[in-house]
Amino acid sequence: MADTRGFEVLTGAHDYLREVVAGVPAGAWGAATPCSEWTARQVLNHARIDQQGYGLAITGGRPDSDPFHPEDALAADPSAQLDEVLRMVAAAYAGLPADSEAVPTPLGPLSLPFAAAAAAMDAAVHAWDIAVATGQDLPLTEELAEGIRPLADHLVDHLRDSYQVFAPARQVPAGAGQAESLLAFLGRDPHWKP
Fold first, then answer.
1. What is the percentage of the chain residues whose pLDDT exceeds 90?
2. With bands split at pLDDT 50, 70 and 90, how would you rate the model's confidence at 1?
3. Which of 49, 124, 131, 184 could be disulfide-bonded to 67 (CB atoms 3.0-4.6 Å)?
4. 103: which strand partners?
5. With helix as H, strand as E and coil as C, how does the chain read?
6. pLDDT tens digits along 33-60
């Protein structure tokens, strides 16, 4: 498989997203999130569609809807619907030849040797969005943030300029750890509260 470290980071990000989704309290799916004007359910659907896009960029096909216009409606069991997509993404990356240097992504013409880490960044940040929106004490871990940061440093400014998918970077708080620094770099307020 290509990008072994990226795949490990992807597995960690997918596990984090699963844990957060499983922990959303009853009635909290309508909560406001750090993603302006999106509910927790819409952020989850956006994350699901993004992950679907990463997997299908490798195996062929297109996501079932537009990730930038996520609808509120998901299946009655969001965890099951998410898990199906995450398993497909993991299988797509696991099926890559070990010497893959340019892996297709849903990011237009961009192909990356570390595309699994790009999918991981997306999954982890949206897991954090849902966790803080729904009052869960499930922070983005320092280890996961550290695994994502090299990709973010390489890719995020390009995505900001070409796709306008990240807000401008925020000032990194003094004494911030890996997770706070990554969130601020990605345009999130690491201390956001509902």
1. 54
2. very low
3. 49
4. 112
5. CCCHHHHHHHHHHHHHHHHHHHCCCCCCCCCECCCCCCEHHHHHHHHHHHHHHHHHHHHCCCCCCCCCCCCCCCCCCHHHHHHHHHHHHHHHHHCCCCCCCCEECCCCCCEECCHHHHHHHHHHHHHHHHHHHCCCCCCCCHHHHHHHHHHHHHHHHHHHHHHCCCCCCCCCCCCCCHHHHHHHHCCCCCCCCC
6. 998 789 999 999 999 999 999 999 999 9
